[in-house]
Structures are given as structure tokens and as C-alpha cells.
Amino acid sequence: MNFASVFDVPCIFFCRNNGYAISTSVKDQYRGDGVAARGPAYGIVTIRVDGNDLFAVYNATKAARQIAVKESRPVLIEAMTYRLGHHSTSDDSTAYRSIDEMNSWEKEDNPIKRLRKYMENKGWWDSQRDEKAHADAQKHVMDCFHNAEQKKRARPQSMFDDIYDKLPNHLVRQRQEMVDHVKMYKKEYPLDLYEKAF
Amino acid sequence: MLVKNLTKVSQLLINSKSQIRHASAFKFAPDTAPAELGETTKMNLCQSVTNAMDISLSQDKSAVVFGEDVAFGGVFRCTVGLRDKYGKDRVFNTPLAEQGIAAFGIGLAAAGATAIAEIQFADYIFPAFDQIVNEAAKFRYRSGNLFDCGKLTIRTPTGAVGHGALYHSQSVEAFFAHSPGLKVVVPRSPIQTKGLLLSSIRDPNPVIFFEPKILYRQAVENVPVKDYEIPLGKAEVLMEGSDVTIVSWGTQVHVVKEVANIVKEKLNISCEVIDLRTIVPWDYETVCNSVSKTGRLIISHEANVTMGFGAEIAAFVQKECFLNLEAPVERVAGYDIPSIPHVYEAFFMPDKWKCIEAVKRVVNF
């Protein structure tokens, strides 16, 4: 942010503040008035927005873009929201936050539900379409999984690709050693999952 | 709803073929603790870490445990229960900044407190690299021993787990071994972990303690309940042999132990297996004595081969044992690839088949 500010860079810093870093809530993370307060300290124009309000985020970003482009300077947006899901598939967030806390955000201030309500009031959306969209999305994801699973992985040698622009000699040698070794121990490696190695 | 969907997706990932670990990894064979250490209780490696910190916190009123997410028990559950037992002033979360964690630990230690810091993954220790290498490692030296931060211990999970990919798999011990002033430790089992961690915490030098994270749950042993230390700087001969010395540390010790058993049975080759345990200062005496006897040396580690700690051992041993060597020193290590590429892990690893071939090469040289 300091670099962008010093060099008058027309860019947007968009901070989606969802309140958690794995188990650590913002209470343990910082003092002061959140992330937005850091903006003025760097001389950056800043706005904090309700991150669960689609239109507010849209308008704030639009205004930020205008300032950034017109005035050639950075803009910071802090969009306040809540991480409803677990941090990852190996995280169980009930170990560090209450179900009530999660439920209240899920029910009371859920960006998807809020937008849906708005769209339903306008007559643009209804539960029938919603169910279909869910079913379609789920099918699409499952199809992708299924298709990906049918695909062979790239041949084992390609693990040596893209380390450098061209493979240096020591890696050419290591790649050959790997191939020679795997040829000798074909049964011990999951070669059937990969494109033909040799 | 979202939570439910996430659970479904994770279920799907678990069921999908891409998540099945290839079976060749390693077998953990538990040790028996020396009888003189008394009563034991069953612990996995994670619990032995907790137990060592529990002992430190109870005995040393200045000891504190901190890091990202440690308050609720840690993402690997190594600090479970410690906050309830010792309070939030002694077991606490830090903001998400590894450089800050190391710096804070150095300051605490310099002021006389026992600082036990956790870096959530060894892969994420690099933001703290400057603090560790330029501050912690040199603190005593540059002040002419006026000050030190020897009461600092940084614990961090290391190594392959089968699905960690590029940022949850790395073995980075060699970076720190290159920095004089630090001690570097990698245990292989729960019994070892407890004794080595207690030594590390009490050692008057800053210690980087790498915990092989795949062993957190998989490695279970009957661990002595009492307070005990395993000295730093001492390797352990796990299997005695006469033909080939194999040196390793951490998870890889279990791979090479299996290799020693296989080549004994199939090829009648007798291997001496050494767990280095401490990377710095490393026990060259035990290694050189063994190589002088066997005449052959293989070093095996998960870390990239170039400038891995095996390179240091190889260079040292060829000088000390030159006339005893019957074959060139071999290294079986990770390839020089950003480690570890997810879908290629089975091919990347210095697995038992690669080690067996190395044994054959040094014997048939």
C-alpha cells in the first residue's frame, strides 16, 4: 500500500474482511479501527463498505475505480463480511466459535439471501428457479469432478517442467534417473493414473 | 447450508481417487522407552509435543506458548488444553505475522522468559527468516555474549503428508543449518519428540524444532510420563550393521529402517541405520565411526538434494573416512523440484525403492 501510494499507482486494494484467519478472530488480530484505518495513514483514500450488500460493494468499487483512474492514485476498500464456512476441509470451526454466532450471520446477514430477497421482491427470482439453479450448479460441479477423474494425469516426467525456462543439466540428469528408476520398479508406482511415461 | 455443502465437497474429495495416498510411503515401528524412565502412557507424536510443553509450562513460570491459532489448541491440536490449564497470559494467539512471532519470541527470550513459539507450517517460516537468521542466530555473537535469546524455541511442522502440495510439504532444515548460532532438531517418534523438545526448550541457544507432521497421528508409542531429556547433538544407532551405513532423520528414518530390513532379508546386506536427530550440531563422530566400520554411506532425506544437509555429511565423511570408503557416498533425497508437487508426490519421494537401489549401488561398486 505504501508503494502504491508513493508511486501514485491507479489501483484498488480490496480487503474482504471476513473476521477470521482460521481460528483467530479479528479481536486477536489487530487493534484500532480495522483495516480501513490503515488507508489514511498511507495517504490512501479509503472506504469501508457493507460487504454483504452486493449493490453497496458494486457502487463503492465503481467510485474507487473512478478515483483511481481519474486521479491516478490508489484506493482502499474494506468490505465487511463474515466467513460462514470452515477455513478449509480440514477445519471444524465449531471448535472456536459458537453455532449461534454462525447461525445468526447465516440467517440475518447473508449476502446471498439478501440479494435473493431483493430479486424476489422485484419479481426476478423465485424458489423454483432457485432450486433449479442449485441443482444445475451441483450437477455441473459433479460432472466436472467426474470428467476430471477420468482424465489421466500428466506423465511423471512433467514434474520437472517449468522450474526454469529451460531445464538445466542437473535436472535433466535427475529426470533421467527418475525415469530409469521407475522403469525398474513399474509395479511400485501408480503409473496407470498417469499418461504413458515411457 | 454452506457448512453442509462444504462437508459434502470434502467427502467427495476424500472419496475421489486423486486423494488416495500411494501405499509405498513408510511404516512406523514403535520403540520401547528405556525402563529407567519409568511409567509410560500411550501418546501419538502430537500428544508428546503437548506433554513436553505442559511440563515446561508447569515447571518454568516464565514459559509461554504462542503462535497462530494456538489458543484453541492449534490447527494440529498440539496445544490442546494448555490455555485452560495455564491461562491466556501464557498460552495465546498472535496476529498472523511470522516475522512478528519470531521477533516477539526473541525479545521475550532476551528478557529472560522461556519462549516457545509455533510457526504453523515450516513452509511459512520464511517471513520470519530475517528475524531468525539475522537476529536470533547472531544475538549472542554480536553482543560478545552480553545478551542472548537462547530461551527461544521455534516449533514447526515439516515434511510430506501425501497431499500437502507446494506449501504444506517442505523440509527446510538445511536453510537453518546454514546459519551459525541456531540449533536444528528433527525427531522421529513420540518418545524422541518429548525428550528432544524438552532439551530444546532448556538449551541455552535458539532451537528450530521441526516436527514431522505426518507422524502427529500415525506415530504412537508408550511415552514415559516423567520429565526426561534426550541430549541434542547426539545421533542414535537404531540398527547395527556391517556393510552400509544409512543416515537419516524425521519420517525418512522409518523408510530407511524398512529398507535395512528388506535388504537384509532379500540380499543379505547388513545396514547400520543412524537417526541423526540433531541436524546442528550434528554428531559426526557417531556417523564417521560407523562409516569407518562399514565403508559405505547413504544419506537420505526428503528435502531437495542440492544443498540438503546430506551434502554437508557427504563432504565431511569423504574427508574424514576417505581411506575407509569402499564406494562413493550416495544421497537419496528429493529431486531439485519445488517440493512437493501434489500429483507427483509418489515419484518425488526418496522412497524405499530408491533407497534399495542405492544400497545395491554402494555394495556393488
From TrEMBL, chain A:
Keywords associated with the record: Oxidoreductase, Thiamine pyrophosphate, Transit peptide
Pfam families in the cross-refs: E1_dh
Record bears the keyword Metal-binding: no
Species for this entry: Brachionus calyciflorus
Start and end residues of each Dehydrogenase E1 component domain: 1-156
Reactions the enzyme catalyzes: N(6)-[(R)-lipoyl]-L-lysyl-[protein] + 3-methyl-2-oxobutanoate + H(+) = N(6)-[(R)-S(8)-2-methylpropanoyldihydrolipoyl]-L-lysyl-[protein] + CO2
Protein name: 2-oxoisovalerate dehydrogenase subunit alpha
Gene Ontology annotations of biological process type: branched-chain amino acid catabolic process
Family: Belongs to the BCKDHA family.
Enzymatic class: oxidoreductase
UniProtKB/TrEMBL annotation, chain B:
Top-level taxon of origin: Eukaryota
TM region positions: none
InterPro entries found in the cross-reference section: THDP-binding, Transketo_C/PFOR_II, Transketolase-like_Pyr-bd, Transketolase_C
Reactions the enzyme catalyzes: N(6)-[(R)-lipoyl]-L-lysyl-[protein] + 3-methyl-2-oxobutanoate + H(+) = N(6)-[(R)-S(8)-2-methylpropanoyldihydrolipoyl]-L-lysyl-[protein] + CO2
Function: Together with BCKDHA forms the heterotetrameric E1 subunit of the mitochondrial branched-chain alpha-ketoacid dehydrogenase (BCKD) complex. The BCKD complex catalyzes the multi-step oxidative decarboxylation of alpha-ketoacids derived from the branched-chain amino-acids valine, leucine and isoleucine producing CO2 and acyl-CoA which is subsequently utilized to produce energy. The E1 subunit catalyzes the first step with the decarboxylation of the alpha-ketoacid forming an enzyme-product intermediate.
Domain Transketolase-like pyrimidine-binding, chain residue ranges per copy: 43-218
MF GO annotations: branched-chain 2-oxo acid dehydrogenase activity
Protein name as it appears in the record: 2-oxoisovalerate dehydrogenase subunit beta, mitochondrial
